[in-house]
Fold:
Amino acid sequence: METIDMLINEIESEILKAKRATFSTTDIVLNRQVMLDLVTRLRASYPIVLKEAAQIKKDRDDILAKAEAYANKTMDAAEEQARQMMSESEVLKKPPRKRMQCVRKRRKTTARWTIRRALSLSICSTARKRS
Structure:
């Protein structure tokens, strides 16, 4: 299967090996049939490239959607776990000093997950804007 790059390289090659036109420093003489053949082959391979590009874009969108869903699911699970850990029955059973350590630890964990979620959503948003 010919790629567009291969065909462009052939066109470039034809241009580079072309002879200069008489009395001109910029004009060249090309073989009309060779050039028309290259253009026809280029047109024939173009739709294939478009289909491949569309499939790549679809795959990318699917990956981004899965990543966003995973980020949301992970955050929801982390938030639920943090809520459970902060429940009064668990925290109040500990001495006051241990309670404060537990509260600080849970706040740090929640903050870390919030930052990770925001970062994941930002990456997904940025990738979507580029498409």
